[in-house]
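If your schedule permits, I should be very grateful for your opinion on a structural question. Please examine both parts with care and let me know of anything in them that strikes you as inconsistent. The record follows directly beneath this note:
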Amino acid sequence: MKLIELLAVGGAYVDINCTQFPFGEQGLLPETEVVGDAYEMVPGGSALNFARFCANLGLRTAFIGKVGRDKMGSVLGDLLEESGVQPELVTDPETTTNISFNVVNSSGKSIMAVVGNAKHRLTSEEIETKIVSLLPETEYLMLGGVFKLKKLLPVLKPIITAAKNSGTKIVVDHGRLSDNTSQEDIKFVKELVTHADYYFPSRNEFLQLWSVSSIEEGLARLADEANAVTIVKDSTNGALTLIDGKIIHIPAYSVEAINTIGAGDSFNAGFIAAQKEGMTIEDSIRFACATAALKVSQSELPTREAVNDFIELRK
């Protein structure tokens, strides 16, 4: 049995989230004092949120990121341990830990202010060294937000090789293509997908990367180019995959959303947790949809028990 069931890598933040701020479409105005309801301080960033979701679903989880040798770096390490995530943080006295200050109004609209530079100073060498050293004890390696973490691209090939040699499953959720995404970057990520065991793009990410006009067309094309279990997340429409040449659509659960941030990451975590339980692909997607539904409709992170109860009540 491997000690780490899920290893994630990415930008690490201390998130300070403040709720019930009374602002409208104009946002927060200068020279005014606006009083919110409550606040929390939690680990943040897409990859780190994914790691937290996995830990909350009972997976032994570790996270690689970079922090400064400062107070907030220490705070982030403590917050990770409190979340059940094993911190594998690179510390650097020349950087400052990333902090994200988020205010949310009663309608769920948010304003974000970010400071710190540690995320952008995580080097290719640091990423490769950390990942490769942990792969022998890792069952699943999540490579998420690859287009945001461009320094990961040059070391993808040695990481893929090391993962294959250690029997580690590769999970890819590359994120959105930005305006400065180069053709070379796209080529790198397409090659990564062909080596992946699981691939979890959203609809728009999928259509854009593979230059296809529909999810169905893309799934059929990818079946000829890659062996990855490909699940395309289609927001409130649910998710689609291809099994034995047949398109399978699993609808989303209908809930009243209060915060959709992290819905995709919670879906990914739910799917992997379900696969660890030995569920079929279709049942794993249902479990993932239920995990995402709970994430967007409540303030607490979903647990395995809560997801199972949610599914049982809606049979």
